[in-house]
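Data deposition worksheet. Section B asks for the primary sequence of the deposited chain exactly as it was used as input, without tags or linkers unless they were present during the calculation. Section C holds the resulting structure in C-alpha cell form. Section D is free text for depositor observations; keep each observation to a single sentence. Incomplete worksheets are returned to the depositor.
Section A, Depositor: J.P.
Section B:
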Amino acid sequence: MTKKKRKNKELSRNDLLKIEIAREIGIWDQVEQSGWDSLSNALCGKVGGMMSKRLKEERKSPKAE
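Section C:
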C-alpha cells in the first residue's frame, strides 16, 4: 500500500482556527497522528460548533481601526 502524498498548501483562516480549537480541547495530538477522520462525530461537532461561535463573534464585534 502506498501513502498518498500531500501537497503543501497554504492553510486558510478556517483551517488555522480549527487547529487552534483542536489544541485547546486537547485533541491535536490525535489529529496529527491519525488525521481528522479519526475523530468521533461528537468531537467533530464540538470543533465545528466552537468554530461557528467564534466566527459569529468576530462578525459582531466592531473592528478597531
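Section D:
The CA atoms of residues 35 and 57 lie 28 Å apart.
The chain has three helices and no strands.
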